Amino acid sequence: MFTELIDSSRLDINYFYRYGEMKGLMENAGAAVAHSASEYYGNKLNIVIICGGGNNGGDGMVAAQILQKENNVALVLTSEIGHIKSAFIQSLISGWKGKVFGIQEIDSVLSKADLIIDAIFGTGFHGEIKEPLASVIRKINGSGKPVLSVDVPSGLGSSLAVKPSRTVTFTFVKDTMDSQNSGDIITKNIGIDQNLVYETGPGDILFFPFAHKNSHKGMNGKIAIVAGWKYHGSALIASMGAHSTSPDLVKIFSNSRNYSVVGSQIYTTMLENCEENEYFMEEILKDDCILMGPGMGDSDYEISIMEKIMEAVNVPIVLDASAINILGKQGKGSLGKEIVITPHKGEFKKLTGKEPTLENAKSAAKKLGITIFLKGPTDIITDGTTTILGNGGNSRMTMGGTGDLLAGFLAGLIGRKVPILRACSMASFVCKRAGERCMNRQKVWFGIDDMVREIPQVFMEMDEIRSKIKEM
């Protein structure tokens, strides 16, 4: 299961994408906090609720409205009211019946508290806590009062974090949370469909590695594509997919037969003729990810070349089309290597001898020690432990080339150091969403080039949803 801190933010984005609003989740979360406070600490208390300006603070404000019915509640805001972008949180502040305190009054407020509720930062916080909030957290920790944190202790993962006696967390326990840093952990269901945890969605944009301003050539992914020895178009489409992830370098490793025709159709992709360069293997192994198989054919010669690459590989490798068959011949030779295969249903059945079901995919991935991306109307992505489902797309995406595009895109993400399961999830969502956008614009009259042009639009759509969530 995904349990990294960032997954809560991913779920928020995916929830908004599906349902169009976050108010209900915030209300449910706040109610869960209020209920836990009453259950574990009782009522008739002086409760101090310290709220940040984001969604975590919104959860705390909802809890404050509920708790003030049976308690004396002091609401402390760590942000200036005018700096809070969320209209819903602004409405909560406007509807608050009590006094609102600023952090400059924290000492006197904490001195009167029977219970402190920490709703400063949620899972979206990264980095180190700076002043004046660093002082606020030190005062919370030094107060000697019981502390209830909302979702995660504020600052968890940094050198300075709230040390609560209890934490009310939502949907699932977040990675790194334990009794030492979070106290007793209370897990509450706030209405997020459990399927959202295991489905692709625009929240995967959080794992896209935007290049650092000081990066240099080669730092942002080098992709090797061994493809198109029989059908040269597959190599070209795969390279377009890889380029769509914004890597620094993409190189196609071709044969003499198709070297000239491939070279005549590319200008942003490097090209190598394996049959005229005895050191091509060394070149391939310098890259960050290798894609092998699209349009390669299955003659003994092409298979032997791919087998040699497979034996030597020391970086993540994506196996598509005829390269998938090599896995069955490798046996223990594949163990310990980072391998993703992208079979359609027929290729899966040929490899495993089993029907292409979710359970069979999980079993095969675990047995082979690989990640399987089983393509279909619903993509099944599994490493044998975690399984993700990718829905969407349309019937036009059965056209030739969509698998090549997906394989290249996936290799590009992995080459850019996106963790494999994350890369698979993102690749499934982006490619299916690109197909949907094409269908919306052109009905069934679209092709691979149209899908490629839509991929940047999907990324911008994902980033726009992320920005909207930040402002809520």
Question: Any idea how many domains?
Answer: 2
In spatial order, strands of the major sheet run: 10-9-8-11-12-13-14-15-16
Oligomer: single chain
Q: Report the CATH superfamily of the largest domain.
A: Ribokinase
Given helix and strand content, the structural type is alpha/beta
| Count of discrete alpha- or pi-helical segments spanning 4 or more residues | 17
Reading off the top of the CATH hierarchy, the class of the largest domain is best stated as Alpha Beta
Query: How many β-strands, per DSSP?
Result: 16
Question: What would you call the shape?
Answer: elongated
The low-confidence parts are: 1-5
Classify the fold: give the CATH topology of the largest domain: UDP-N-acetylmuramoyl-L-alanine:D-glutamate ligase
CATH architecture term of the largest domain: 3-Layer(aba) Sandwich
What percentage of the residues does DSSP assign to strands (E)? 15-25%
How far is it from the N-terminal to the C-terminal residue, by CA?
A: 27 Å
| CA-atom Rg in angstroms | 26 Å
Instruction: Name the average pLDDT.
Output: 90
How much helical structure, as a percent, in the residues? 40-55%
What does this structure look like?
This protein is of the alpha/beta class. The protein folds into two domains: 6-193, Rossmann fold; 202-470, Ribokinase (UDP-N-acetylmuramoyl-L-alanine:D-glutamate ligase, 3-Layer(aba) Sandwich), CATH 3.40.1190.20. Helices cover 42% and strands 15% of the residues. It has 17 helices and 16 strands. It has helices spanning 6-19, 23-41, 55-67, 87-94, 106-111, 133-141, 179-182, 232-243, 256-263, 280-284, 300-312, 324-330, 345-352, 358-368, 402-415, 420-442, 448-470, and strands at residues 46-51, 72-77, 100-102, 115-119, 147-150, 166-170, 184-188, 222-226, 249-254, 270-273, 289-292, 317-319, 339-341, 371-374, 379-382, 387-390. Strand 4 (115-119), helix 6 and strand 5 form a beta-alpha-beta unit. Mean pLDDT is 90; it is low at 1-5.
